[in-house]
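Usage

Read records sequentially. Each one opens with the input sequence:
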Amino acid sequence: MVCFRLFPVPGSGLVLVCLVLDSENATCLYAKWQMNFTVRYETTNKTYKTVTISDHGTVTYNGSICGDDQNGPKIAVQFGPGFSWIANFTKAASTYSIDSVSFSYNTGDNTTFPDAEDKGILTVDELLAIRIPLNDLFRCNSLSTLEKNDVVQHYWDVLVQAFVQNGTVSTNEFLCDKDKTSTVAPTIHTTVPSPTTTPTPKEKPEAGTYSVNNGNDTCLLATMGLQLNITQDKVASVININPNTTHSTGSCRSHTALLRLNSSTIKYLDFVFAVKNENRFYLKEVNISMYLVNGSVFSIANNNLSYWDAPLGSSYMCNKEQTVSVSGAFQINTFDLRVQPFNVTQGKYSTAQDCSADDDNFLVPIAVGAALAGVLILVLLAYFIGLKHHHAGYEQF
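and closes with the structure output:
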């Protein structure tokens, strides 16, 4: 058995390659795929949290076999204390099947589930029965999602062939249904024929709460609903980010702070904050790399932004819809926004500067100008009325 792990952008998911060899060192099973898992669990204070499991260090493949007359081929993966994944294959006369997958996770792992109410190893089994012609390589670049018992499993960029003949992986590919129809956008996207046409507006996205820790202390807080507007190859899409399947990481320094979001489709969405004039912070940079529905990767970066400006020691808040224009091809609509990237105390937001204050600051000079104009008009009217009366007095004399 020859199995190894590739390392993608951090947080995007496990990238695994496995060649299972028979007794004659010929390949009998080939697989390459990416995956991650999102688990919702109850905490000791009776609330619920969501964690994404995508990177647990060393990966082993103990128990992966070619199969025999009694047992079919199997890929077994272990990636942490009490974390494992198994895929089982079966064979018929002219087809083979990805029969089932099983995922086990350990809520007793204090690194992943530090405040879990119930500790122990839990297992989720899923029957798939995906049938593939014998001697064909199964390919599915599209995102596949399985959801059961508070666990969401994500798989993409899948290549697999069980029952490999003569030790040679086939060049004939059998595509999954999603790849066969990859030109049709799923329901999470709205696709239009031209970038000049505005996509149909989607519903308001759910607001998620994200945080970054520095040791045991929270150093960055963010609450926001995020809606991505993407244009690529003359196709426009509107995508709402689901906070329940989105994981946050990042870092905090004296003059910069990073909030990184990732999920099964988003390799990374970075919000970089900076300090200016030693007394204010602002959003300076946004970077994104994500998979689109057609399997391509969309990547954009802009490090010359100026949004969400507020004094250090406070938070920035805006409940109304705002747009962060990263480029002509990528904008982010934010809803119910509140963010504090510096000087977080006791894990709580400080007093907020509301974006409505910007509107007020804009209206003040207008109001002052209008008042001065009114006074000037009154002075001119009084002058002309007085001048008229003065001329009338001369005529009477």
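Summary fields computed downstream for this record:
- The radius of gyration is 29 Å.
- The chain has two helices and 25 strands.
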